[in-house]
Every structure is written in structure tokens, then in C-alpha cells.
């Protein structure tokens, strides 16, 4: 522990088992949920809209974030032995969060684009310059991933194999920026700026867009409606918009707040409070990964359009297995979209 060659193995604690179980749950169901969103959008012609393509890009980013999530196994890596080259590759792709940082940033940027696109479409419907077309959509998605790669480049650069691990069998095999350990000034600057640009500011932007949309649709709901179905659809969309802003803030802001606090501590303070800081770090880290698990539930499962398409896909398979002819399948065709969903193509 203190730099001597002590042959000690890392003991897996009950805390490790609890977090591994929690990560197993969100990774399995999150990967399945995001895969369903991707499949539905790709294979359903009626879902080929700009908003749904953005939702599919969000699902791709969340899928990669969860698939490469090291929370399932990172506690068991303390005794791993690798060469420097293979260790660097292992740390950057799997254990060090470097690649996950890119997919997470792409997820956040996609959430921002979706929020702005809906804000313009609902609050400023006559502002044609802000509407995404098929051509500008491709450019927007490309820009999202390029910005995610650029913003995460320091993370990829500074994540490497811990070549001094031989000094202690209890050391984590990867050196990475997003840890509890006291960081050099350049790493702390990166962590603070990244947290502001990719968590705090997006939280403000998303909240502003959805609060504005909520206020606009609330004022519309007070006007006489054609039927009760339209009112019901309006309430459903209002509920969804509130959930979107609240969920992102709840799952992501604690992570930024934690690293603001850690960056302000000195080396001695970090050592003294390491045990409690490490536990809080695990909690906020789990929350930020949970955002990729909750997104398909909020964006897709809350939409009657998505649920209808999924139900029809399942019904088609059931009818095929039971030997029924194409009459029932033909009825499943293109899902009936409500007035609100037709307007916003969700």
C-alpha cells in the first residue's frame, strides 16, 4: 500500500457487488431499450422524420455509452497485468472511460439539438431558418460527433495504463482524469471546463427550451379544442417535456457539482476524505450512466407513436407464429398518429 512490494489482492467488498448489480441492470435494459429505438426508427417508414432520426442518434450514443460502461467490472481490475501498449489500448477503450466520454458527449449534444429543434418547431413555428431538413440533419449529426470527439480529446490523451502499478497490487490499472485523486492543474481545468460546457450549460439550455415549450403549450391548452383526444395528447406531451428537463438535471448535474467540489480541494484534503469522496463519486457516476438508460424510456416509451409501432411489430410476429394470414398484418400498417405527434413528428 505504501510503495513496498506487498503481495496483497484487492478484496471485493459488498459495495462493489451492489454497484455491479446496479450497473448490470441499467446496462442490460438500457442496451435493449436503445436497440429497440434504433430498430423501430430504421425499419418504420412513418418514423423517418428529423426528430426521430435525432432520437435514433441519441439511442446510438446511449447504446455505446452503456455497452462500454466499465462500472460492471472496474472494481475487479486491480490485479490485472498488461504490457504498456496493450494496457494503453485497454484503458482508453474499456477501463478508463475515454471512449465512453465521446459517446456521452454526443448524447448530451443530441439532447440539446432535440430541445432546440422542438423549441423552434413549437414556440417559433414560422422561423423557417431554424428548422432541420434531411440535408441539414446529416450535417447536424456529423457536427455532433465531431464536437464530441474534440471535446473528449484531452480525456483520450490523458487516459493511459498505470506503468507504476507494480508498486502496489491495489492500484487501479488506468490513470484517468475523472477520478477522486488530486489532479494536476491542467486536468482540473479540463474537468471544470468540460463540466460547464457539457453538463451545466446544456442543463440550462434544455430547461429553458422545455420550460418555454411547456408555457407555450399550456397557453394553447386554454383555448377551445376540437375534441378531448387533442387535449389528452397535449397533456401527455406537456408531461413528457417536464420529465425530460428534470431527468437530465437530476442525473447529470450532481456529477458536475461533485467534480467542482473535488477540484477545489487540496491534496491533503482529498486524502483525508478519500473514503467518503470515493463513495459519492461512485454514486454520481452511476447516476450519469443512468441517464443513458432512462433516455429511451422518456423519449420513446412515453410516445404513443413508438408504443404503437412496437405493439404492431410484436403482433405481427405473434400472428406469423400462429399461422394467421396477412389481414391482421395489413391492419397494423402505419400507426395512427395523434394531432400533436403529427405536428412534432415524435
Characteristics of this structure?
1% strand, globular, disordered N terminus, disordered C terminus
Description:
This protein has about 350 residues and is an all-alpha fold. Helix content is about 70%, strand content about 0%. The protein contains 13 helices and two strands. A two-stranded antiparallel sheet has the order 1-2. Helix 4 (about 100-125) packs antiparallel against helix 5 (about 135-150). The protein is globular, with a radius of gyration of 23 Å. The relative contact order is 0.13.
Describe the sheet with the most strands: 2 strands, antiparallel
Q: Can you give the helix content as a percent range?
A: over 70%
What is the typical, i.e. mean, pLDDT? 80
Strand order, sheet with most strands: 1-2
Distance between the termini: 54 Å
Question: How much of the sequence is in beta strands?
Answer: under 5%
List the uncertain runs.
Answer: 1-7, 324-345
List SSEs in N-to-C order.
HHHHHHEEHHHHHHH
What general outline do the C-alpha atoms trace? globular
Question: What structural class do helix, strand and pairing data support?
Answer: mainly alpha
Question: In total, how many beta strands?
Answer: 2
Computed Rg: 23 Å
Number of helices: 13
